[in-house]
């Protein structure tokens, strides 16, 4: 019992320009529940990929029940009894529970015919379902199950693989309170059977309740391990943040007044029960912070007319606008720089110039025939303005680096007349140099009178760039911070929903926040 | 408008043509060239039509049946209902455009797959054509003639010889079929639309990445519908030429497989069925190659039952060669990227 089930020693993993994991050590004992917390981008998912054998670390040692390895393969991970219950569940909707649990390992019958022995499958699956206290049978179709039930199917699958360590990534993010309670009971049951669990969650309350030990990651480093007795909400938050922030804030050049974008009572199908109210002033950069899945992207999509909102009204410069497609949003001067630029922002194998002119092609055409010279001239101008690093504007966008690709997306909109621009994770996967270029650009855009709504999960960016920060938690605005109250602590408190529910446009009790 | 890929296809056509001409010199007889040109004209219009839809990542399987139904309609209008042929032509093309609009609306607004929509359309139009004529062959009766219409659609003109005479030479006496001239005109217009106009840019953008196109404010549904409208409208034009060429229409077989010839020509011409790739020159060259292959089967004494097999084999070889070529290109592209990023 003294040999830990799993030990990671000095694991290091770097990507070009980023240290994702920096000598991370972690050990899990038999029947232990380890909570793993950290901000977005702290290195949790990289660590999990290392454990699953998907990524090989650059250096370090992995010890499973005493066997030492430099890296795990997917096969090693399975053999070591490591199983995952992912945030996005990997189940086949069109098959029943038993078929899902034994997918790829079906018991066969009928000799040469190799028929699936469904009866045997179901008989084998039943005990696992019983053990987890499931209220559905092995012949239930997965498509009819709730998310929580599907999660139990995943856990049953893990158990059927003789898992000795189950890693749960944000298992409770979409569960109701009662479902969460049941999951916590299941975890306790696993623990008493000697199965270990790594519980990754943003919901610190739940981590607090179920973890024997909590490991906190920050910027790819383990910044602390709290024993059961010391696990407390406040301590975890304090450890999750606390890096020195470089001052990158550029104050606005002058004052603009009036609201450029007013959103009232906006409900999206993601969180139909919560409404979002937002005001972005002209010439201001409003940050929209929150954890992944808090509904920020859905708000952006609804504002830009991609998804139809369930309710709500939008005003631009005081006039009510009805946006039902990106086209109509663009006509109103409301633009979106999307989160996934490769999928939604660019035509990768098309030239820089053609990408830039696409949203406003009519302006570069005479009698519907595109004037290539005007198009190239504009592209050259944008190339200069945004310092896009490319030899020619006829180069395919896919050949550029991430930062330069993002500048091309920006160039599309800057060739037009923006009133409101929504940036969804504008600097994700972008090198430091281009990041600063983009920050400077954001500010000069704002100073020219454009209202900017910036969604970002990068705390340093949100605090460093924005004039105000609205924080979202589970589909609603949990608070709006003014610049004097900016701190990672305050943002994170609101992001994990620590302060009482309030959808008002006020700063929610900084006193209470400071008291922690 | 000429792309590297088209150049390869052009070379292939010249090689195949030269080989056939050496084996059987009748291939280059003026009469044979004129007949082949006529076939190219007829099928080329349908192939150009199909190209618009394929470019968006869709497919229109119904064009053969459209040619049959609208052909029957056209003949009925001018022969039995005594409608002036100009009005009849406009009705037929408008009917084609309406069909295309329905296909496009079902694909974009209802969200059905293009394959399914146009497969059903194929069956419906084919059935409608047979029912309309009570499954009988329709055509022109004795003494009925439309001289202008016939000259325009099925006529041939000496073009090269008079031009050569202006310069004091004896030119080749090849009667250029007016179908070919129509194809050239349609190709020029379609080429400008696809490769120079705003609509063409939008079609390419939708085919390459529909989501990015939508995020750029392109009315993707409307543009996609436009592609289907153009496709079936041109199929209506082709229906008139085809009806005037055959002069009688058996609605059960008229236009059978034409949609597949068109798709084959587009694929040979460098179009990807996933959309976003291809050139109008390519699709015309594809048609030319297919028609030369048909001609080759006749001239080289290959049993005509092997017609389809020859065509299929050549398309397969062409597509395989193209894939190898683009893999090579991708690899060299990746190398170029690595070099341009450099050791930073």
Commentary on this structure:
The complex is a heterodimer of chains A (about 525) and B (about 350). By secondary structure, chain A is α/β, with parallel strands linked by helices. Chain A is built from 18 helices and 24 strands. A six-stranded mixed β-sheet of chain A has the order 6-9-10-3-11-12, with helices on both faces. The C terminus of chain A is likely disordered. Chain B has one domain: Orthogonal Bundle (ABC transporter involved in vitamin B12 uptake, BtuC). In chain B, the strands form two sheets. Chain B has a two-stranded antiparallel sheet. Chain B has a two-stranded antiparallel ribbon with strand order 2-3. Chain B contains 14 helices and four strands. The two termini of chain B are about 40 Å apart. Chains A and B meet through helix 10, helix 11 and strand 20 of A and helix 9, helix 10 and helix 14 of B.
What's the topology here?
The complex is a heterodimer of chains A (516) and B (344).
Chain A: E1 6-15, E2 18-28, E3 33-37, H1 44-52, E4 59-64, E5 67-69, H2 74-79, E6 82-85, H3 97-101, E7 108-109, E8 115-116, H4 118-131, H5 147-160, E9 165-169, H6 177-192, E10 196-200, H7 204-210, E11 213-218, E12 221-227, H8 233-240, E13 259-267, E14 276-281, E15 285-290, H9 296-303, E16 311-316, E17 319-321, H10 326-331, E18 334-337, H11 341-345, H12 352-357, E19 365-366, E20 369-370, H13 372-385, H14 402-414, E21 420-424, H15 432-447, E22 451-455, H16 459-465, E23 468-473, E24 476-482, H17 488-495, H18 510-514
Parallel strand pairs in A: 3-10, 3-11, 6-9, 9-10, 15-22, 15-23, 18-21, 21-22
Antiparallel strand pairs in A: 1-2, 1-4, 4-5, 7-8, 11-12, 13-14, 13-16, 16-17, 19-20, 23-24
Chain B: H1 4-23, H2 30-55, H3 63-80, H4 85-108, H5 114-132, E1 138-139, H6 147-154, E2 156-158, H7 160-166, E3 175-177, H8 178-196, H9 198-208, H10 210-215, H11 220-246, E4 248-249, H12 258-268, H13 280-299, H14 307-341
Antiparallel strand pairs in B: 1-4, 2-3
Helix pairs in contact in B: 1-13, 2-8, 2-11, 2-12, 2-13, 3-4, 3-5, 3-11, 4-5, 4-11, 6-11, 8-9, 9-11, 12-13
